[in-house]
Specification:
Blueprint (H helix, E strand, L loop, with lengths): L1 H17 L22 E6 L8 H13 L7 E5 L3 H6 L7 E6 L2 E7 L4 H13 L2
Helix pairs in contact: 2-4
């Protein structure tokens, strides 16, 4: 009887995980492909324990958004409790910054980084067209 319960539980878990939407943009409208511009979406994955490490990310994004408003959309802050996006993009380090275009990751910056490093990586990715 225990074996049957384990099999049923495992089968239902596998079924539920396979039902996870491949079309994540259906749940997050800001990820939908825009036909009129090819500006990547910016996602900053945040948690409450490493919030101090996020300041350099915010500063770099603010500067680039001011300097190149046509290259950078507004930043979407994603909480670690948003398991759909965290799992979809395989986030295991906070903070993590992603530039997303057509659901594909153009840039990933993870963990504590210096302001200049974040700024340079963002600038290189955004201006590399």
């Amino acid at each position: 009887m225990n074996r049957l319960c384990v099999i049923i539980l495992m089968t239902s878990c596998l079924y539920m995980s396979s039902c996870q939407s491949d079309n994540i943009s259906a749940d997050y409208s800001f990820l939908e492909e825009s036909q009129d511009n090819k500006v990547p979406e910016t996602l900053l994955f945040s948690n409450n324990t490493d919030i101090q490490e996020e300041h350099d990310y915010y500063d770099a994004l603010r500067i680039l958004q001011k300097k190149y408003p046509d290259r950078l959309n507004s930043t979407h802050i994603v909480s670690e409790s948003d398991h759909s996006l965290v799992n979809y993009y395989g986030i295991d380090t906070f903070p993590t910054l992603l530039l997303i275009e057509d659901l594909e990751v153009k840039l990933r910056i993870e963990g504590a980084n210096e302001f200049s490093s974040i700024l340079n990586e963002l600038k290189y990715t955004l201006l590399d067209d």
